[in-house]
């Protein structure tokens, strides 16, 4: 079934000039870009986005990091693109992420309080709908 997913190039990826490389991989895989925007997310939007992590030790560093600079936000579309983009992104920990994945090829541990791991991708159809409504209202 055709579905949509939210993809974010996080501030570390944006700062390193990796937005184009991430979008290139999305398109090379055969997914379609439906919406694209670059901006600094505010804390209110991030509190909604990361609601499930509230209270965890990495929550505040995560929100601070995510609001520290511009992100490239995209809605992508394609058959099973939620699972497919997660596979392209690789494991959350960029040190453990397999070569061939975005995080495995381009990421590393920087010894910081939060995993700076270049990209975010929705992890289920329910999260994708919820997240797209937060970042691109009306496009879910
Ligand atoms: P993401 O999966 O996009 O959304 C939650 C983020 O929290 C995750 O990426 C990492 O950036 C961060 N994160 C998840 N687990 C940890 C952890 N154990 N320690 C630090 N940061 C984490």
Automatic annotation (TrEMBL):
Residues the record marks as active site: 120 (pros-phosphohistidine intermediate)
Keywords from the named record: ATP-binding, Cytoplasm, Kinase, Magnesium, Metal-binding, Nucleotide metabolism, Nucleotide-binding, Phosphoprotein, Transferase
Catalyzed reaction equations: a 2'-deoxyribonucleoside 5'-diphosphate + ATP = a 2'-deoxyribonucleoside 5'-triphosphate + ADP; a ribonucleoside 5'-diphosphate + ATP = a ribonucleoside 5'-triphosphate + ADP
Domain Nucleoside diphosphate kinase-like: residue ranges: 2-139
Keyword tRNA processing in annotation: no
Cellular location(s): Cytoplasm
One cellular component (GO) term of this entry: cytoplasm
InterPro entries tied to this protein: NDK-like_dom, NDK-like_dom_sf, Nucleoside_diP_kinase, Nucleoside_diP_kinase_AS
Amino-acid positions noted as binding ATP in the UniProt annotation, renumbered to this chain: 10, 58, 86, 92, 103, 117
SMART domains according to UniProt: NDK
Single GO term (MF): metal ion binding
One GO BP: UTP biosynthetic process
Essential cofactor(s): Mg(2+)
Statement: the UniProt record of this protein carries the keyword Ion transport: no
EC number(s) on file: 2.7.4.6
Main location group: cytoplasm
UniProt superkingdom: Bacteria
Family that this chain belongs to: Belongs to the NDK family.
Biological function: Major role in the synthesis of nucleoside triphosphates other than ATP. The ATP gamma phosphate is transferred to the NDP beta phosphate via a ping-pong mechanism, using a phosphorylated active-site intermediate.
HAMAP family hit by this protein: NDP_kinase (MF_00451)
Record text on subunit structure and interactions: Homotetramer.
Name this polypeptide is given: Nucleoside diphosphate kinase
Species: Oryzihumus leptocrescens
């Amino acid at each position: 079934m055709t579905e949509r997913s939210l993809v974010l190039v996080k501030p570390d990826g944006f700062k390193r000039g990796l937005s184009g490389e991430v979008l290139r991989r999305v398109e090379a895989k055969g997914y379609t870009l439906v919406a694209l925007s670059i901006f600094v997310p505010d804390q209110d939007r991030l509190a909604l986005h990361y609601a499930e992590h509230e209270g965890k030790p990495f929550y505040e560093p995560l929100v601070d990091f995510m609001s520290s600079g511009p992100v490239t936000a995209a809605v992508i579309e394609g058959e099973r693109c939620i699972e497919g983009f997660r596979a392209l992104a690789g494991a959350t920990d960029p040190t453990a992420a397999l070569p061939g994945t975005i995080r495995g090829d381009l990421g590393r541990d920087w010894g910081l309080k939060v995993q700076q791991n270049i990209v975010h991708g929705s992890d289920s159809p329910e999260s994708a709908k919820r997240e797209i409504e937060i970042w691109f209202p009306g496009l879910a």
